[in-house]
């Protein structure tokens, strides 16, 4: 019987070792597997290379992992923003290495690893420092830089629901980097709100097939979602109470991610 579920987040991150490359899903806080990151902090692995779109927000999730000085290098496309003070301090003091990758190239380099593609040519970054030292080829009169796949030992991903076979569905923009990362790691670990019975997921809605998933752990329904996955409101993405936002434009879209 195929059953990829594990009982705890501690079991889910077991085996991540010092020096490993770990992909972490999320676009900012949207889709970030915070429960798995917290378990990784408790687990103790260090000298990690982290692949993520961002470099942490505030003091929770990925930022908390960085603050523990457990990350040697981060590969990302958007390291600095108003609440990226943890990364900013580490980088300015020379305590973390950064590989900056344009967002489209980042997604495609991860996808290439999962698809078995040895490399691809991209126009993004050509003529800038991002293309320094890379092979440049002229195709149809335009210059392209050779980019290589990004692979990982582990991928930590956040989904909405999964079955015991490891089929995963996501909620709206929380999907972001999760599906491509799930294909590009030796071991893919997915936290979900709920593990449902076989057959409960619409096959047409499954984004990450179970063949790419190694471990599934249920962490409980997020407090801002109803049982059908619809947005309730009342708290932000970290569970903190919101002010009355019924007439505030954009609030629902931001927090629903």
UniProtKB/TrEMBL annotation:
PROSITE patterns: COA_TRANSF_1. Belongs to the 3-oxoacid CoA-transferase subunit A family. Gene3D superfamilies: Glutaconate Coenzyme A-transferase. Coiled coil: none annotated. Transmembrane segments: none annotated. The keyword Transferase applies. It comes from Brevibacterium samyangense. Keywords: Transferase. SMART domains: CoA_trans (SM00882). This is 3-oxoacid CoA-transferase subunit A. The keyword Transferase applies.
């Amino acid at each position: 019987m195929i059953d990829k579920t594990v009982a705890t987040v501690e079991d889910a991150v077991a085996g991540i070792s010092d020096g490993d490359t770990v992909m972490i899903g999320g676009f900012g806080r949207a889709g970030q597997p915070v429960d798995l990151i917290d378990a990784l902090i408790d687990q103790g692995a260090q000298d990690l290379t982290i692949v993520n779109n961002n470099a942490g927000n505030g003091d929770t999730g990925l930022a908390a992992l960085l603050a523990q000085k457990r990350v040697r290098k981060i590969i990302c496309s958007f390291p600095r923003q108003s609440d990226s003070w943890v990364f900013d301090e580490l980088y300015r003091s020379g305590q973390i290495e950064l590989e900056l990758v344009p967002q489209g190239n980042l997604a495609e380099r991860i996808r290439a690893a999962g698809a078995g593609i040895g490399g691809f040519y991209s126009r993004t970054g050509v003529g800038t420092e991002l293309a320094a030292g890379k092979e440049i080829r002229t195709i149809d009169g335009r210059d392209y830089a050779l980019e290589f796949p990004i692979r990982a030992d582990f991928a930590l991903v956040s989904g909405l629901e999964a079955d015991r076979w490891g089929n995963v569905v996501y909620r709206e923009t929380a999907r972001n980097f999760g599906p491509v990362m799930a294909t590009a790691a030796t071991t893919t670990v997915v936290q979900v709100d709920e593990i449902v019975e076989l057959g409960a997921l619409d096959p047409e809605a499954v984004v990450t097939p179970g063949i790419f998933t190694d471990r599934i752990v249920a962490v409980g329904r997020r407090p801002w979602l109803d049982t059908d996955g619809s947005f309730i409101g009342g708290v932000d993405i970290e569970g903190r109470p919101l002010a009355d936002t019924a007439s505030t434009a954009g609030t629902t879209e931001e927090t629903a991610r």
